[in-house]
Amino acid sequence: MSQDHAQQHPLSTYLWVWFLLFLLSVFSYMVDYVGFEGLLKWSLITLFMLLKAGLIVAVFMHMVWERLAIVCAVLVPPGVLVFLMLLMALEADYTLSTRLRFFSG
What we know:
The chain has helices spanning about 10-35, 40-60, 70-105. The model has no long low-confidence stretch (mean pLDDT about 85). It is an all-alpha fold. The longest helix has about 35 residues, at about 70-105.
C-alpha cells in the first residue's frame, strides 16, 4: 500500500498571508507618512520588515510545515546574531559613557 505524502494547502492560507503582507507594508509606509523620526522610525520599519520576511519564509518556503530542525536552522542563527549585536551595543554605550565622563570631568 503506497501512501501519497503530497500535501495541498488551502488557498485561503495563502490569501491570508498576502493580506497580512499587504497590511504590514501599509504600516511600514504609514511610519514614514506620519512623520516618525529617529530610532522609533527605524525600529518600526525594521520590525515590519522582519515580520514580512518571517511570513514569507514560514508560508511560501513551507517552513511552518517542516521539521523543527529545519526551522531551527533558519531561526536560531539570526537570533544569535541579534543577541550579539545587543551585547555590542551595550558595550559601545558603556565605552562612550566612560569616555564622555573622563573627558568632561
